[in-house]
Amino acid sequence: MYIQTYFKSSTKHHNQQKQPPLLLLVHLLLILLLLLLLLLQQQQNILLLLLLLLLLLLLLLFLLLLLLLILVILQLQQQQQQLLLLLLLQLLLLLLLLLLPLLLLLLLLQLLLLLLLLLLLLLLLLLLLLLLLLLLLLLLLLLLLLLLLLLLLLLLLLLQLLLLLLLLLLLLLLLLLLLLLLLLLRRRRRRRLLLLLLLLLLLLLLLLLLLLLLLLLLLLLLLLLLLLLLLLLLRLLLLLLLLLLLLLLLLLLLLLLLLLLLILLLLLLLLLLLLLLLLLLLLLLLLLLLLLLLLLLLLLLLLLLLLLLLLLLLLLLLLLLLLLLLLLLLLLLLLNLVLMHFVTTSF
């Protein structure tokens, strides 16, 4: 009833202004066409052109169907109008009930996409951390290897020094033996000098022994340092291995989360497809309903035309009968006139 009164008032208003009732629709379509032309002048994109044309055609179809629906509603009786409006309201409610979960699913998809992006960023960060840790591990290993090489070189040098000192000790011992032999063989006048030489040699031997002890201590210290460095290397390697294992576990967890999110995305996409199919089915039902209403309207119009034709035929038949009656009356009048003439002439 509300639609009927609104449509009647709008048609009265347009009739008062001597304008057609669909002028507003024509203006809207012209505005849309102008906007489409402006967009086409600004952008030379075929896909955009096709999309805009498709949208325009859909809008035209929707407006035409709406017009037909309004006309059908106006042609129906009051109870039929109420039933039709109730049916349309139910279909609109179904559409809304389907659109709401669609919107919710779209929001969920956006959230899942954001989570995927965040997880991908975390994966990239973890990979970068892994690379940095590997680089640090390599650097530490290189440094420790250099230290080990240096310590080994020092050990080699110390060993060479030890060998030299041992050779000197052997030489000094040989000299001592020679001096002792000379002391035994020489005379008494030169024994003092030989004793002094022996003392000097003994001092040298003591010094060499001290140097040997120092070198041995240095060797021990270097060995201890080597052991400490090896222990440090082992600890660092263990720590880095633990860190790598932790990072690998985190990567595995993130990959599992990504897989779960992808599965959820696929499920949501399937739900979206199902809802879209339902929407398409409802739209098809609406179109079928509108087509049925249009067919009913056409049938009513055809019936009206048939009734008009029948009325015209009846009118024609009546006219023919009237004409026949008139002709009969004329014939009767002529006969009367002829008879009157014969009667008057006979008398």
Count of all domains: 2
- Helical percentage: over 70%
- SS-derived structural category: mainly alpha
How large a portion of the residues is in β-strands, by DSSP E?
under 5%
- Main β-sheet description: none
Our Rg estimate from Cα atoms comes to 59 Å
- The separation of the N and C termini measures 82 Å
Using DSSP, what is the number of strands? 0
Q: Unreliable runs, pLDDT <50, ≥5 residues?
A: 10-21
**Helix segment count?**
5
The gross shape turns out to be rod-shaped
Secondary-structure element order, as H and E?
HHHHH
Summarize model confidence as the mean pLDDT: 74
Organism: Dreissena polymorpha (Zebra mussel)
Main location: membrane
Protein name: ABC transmembrane type-1 domain-containing protein
Membrane topology: Multi-pass membrane protein
Short description:
It is found in: Membrane. With 347 residues, this protein is mainly α. It has helices at residues 2-16, 23-42, 46-75, 78-185, 191-346.
Q: Could you explain the architecture of this structure?
A:
The chain is mainly α. It has two domains: 25-75; 76-346. The chain contains five helices and no strands. The longest helix has 156 residues, at 191-346. The chain starts with a helix and ends with a helix.
Task: Give the tags.
single chain; 347 residues; mainly alpha; 5 helices; 95% helix
Task: Describe the secondary structure blueprint for this structure.
Layout: H1 2-16, H2 23-42, H3 46-75, H4 78-185, H5 191-346
Helix pairs in contact: 2-3, 3-5, 4-5
Transmembrane segments: 21-40, 46-71, 83-105, 111-132, 139-159, 165-185, 197-230, 236-269, 276-309, 315-339
Domain ABC transmembrane type-1: 157-333
Membrane topology: Multi-pass membrane protein
